[in-house]
Design goal:
The structure holds two protein chains of two kinds. By secondary structure, chain A is an alpha+beta fold. Chain A contains three helices and nine strands. In chain A, strand 7 and strand 8 form a beta hairpin. Chain B is of the alpha+beta class. Chain B has one domain: Ubiquitin-like (UB roll) (Roll). Helices cover 22% and strands 35% of the residues of chain B. Chain B is built from two helices and seven strands; from the N terminus they run E-H-E-E-H-E-E-E-E. Chain B has helices at residues 10-16, 31-41, and strands spanning 2-8, 20-25, 29-30, 53-56, 59-61, 66-67, 72-76. The N and C termini of chain B lie far apart (40 Å). In chain B, 34% of the residues are buried. The chains are: A alpha+beta, B alpha+beta. At the A-B interface, strand 3, helix 2, helix 3 and strand 7 of A face loops of B.
């Protein structure tokens, strides 16, 4: 499965990658573009080669830490309208505690490590890069 | 002298005016050396933070990490994935 896509995400595709009879618990996380203020969508861009490599490393770390777990993630790139998912993670493990923990681990590592950036697009045509440290840079239409 | 590729992304690409370039410098050098040269060549990058995030060959590194001829150095704006 490709970890980076420009198409809408389908959680069922991820579930098919991780579920199996030996894994009794499955946890799914999706991150969705929020309607903050007059935001109409977010444009995601990435250092794709590094993002792919980093995702492989994160999934490998999760599967090493939680024995028997299988974890998969997809991140969408390009312009994503409000209400659609930008990321989906599925984690399956023999028992539910490990599925929840593995899923949480992956999204937290994604936030810290993935070279992906987002530009908010607003109804008035302005855009701004999103800086999680709180500093926004606004541009004209 | 060695040639090192430099990649710019998102806002940093806007500041540099390009997404890819290369610099020539004595190697091995450090990431900080590469950034210092980038600031000279691309005036817009003087607006970069004093210590931007950086990666060498697809792995995030500290600014004192070594860079060799042929390496790819990437300057990364604050990460915002997810």
């Amino acid at each position: 499965m490709m970890h980076l896509t420009r198409h809408p995400l389908d959680v069922n595709d991820l579930l098919a990658e991780v579920q199996g009879p030996e894994r009794g618990g499955t946890c799914v996380f999706t991150g969705t573009v929020r309607n903050d203020g007059d935001v109409t969508g977010i444009e995601y861009s990435a250092y794709e080669a590094m993002a792919f490599a980093e995702i492989e490393r994160i999934l490998g770390e999760a599967q090493a830490q939680w024995t028997g777990a299988r974890v998969m993630l997809q991140h969408r790139l390009g312009l994503i309208p409000v209400g659609e998912a930008s990321i989906a993670i599925a984690a399956a493990a023999p028992h539910r505690d490990d599925a929840f923990r593995a899923c949480r681990f992956v999204i937290e590592e994604v936030k810290k490590r993935l070279p992906i950036w987002k530009k908010e697009c607003r109804a008035d045509g302005t855009t701004s890069w999103v800086d999680p440290s709180g500093k926004a840079v606004t541009h004209g239409p | 002298m060695g040639k090192v590729s430099v990649r710019f992304f998102a806002r940093y690409a806007e500041l540099a005016g390009c997404t890819w370039s290369a610099v020539n410098l004595e190697t091995p050098a450090t990431v900080a050396d590469v950034i210092a040269q980038v600031r000279e060549v691309f005036p817009g990058t003087k607006a970069l933070p004093p210590q931007p995030l950086a990666a060498v060959n697809l792995r995030q590194v500290r600014l004192d990490a070594l860079v060799n001829e042929g390496d790819e150095v990437a300057l990364l704006p604050p990460l915002a994935g997810g």
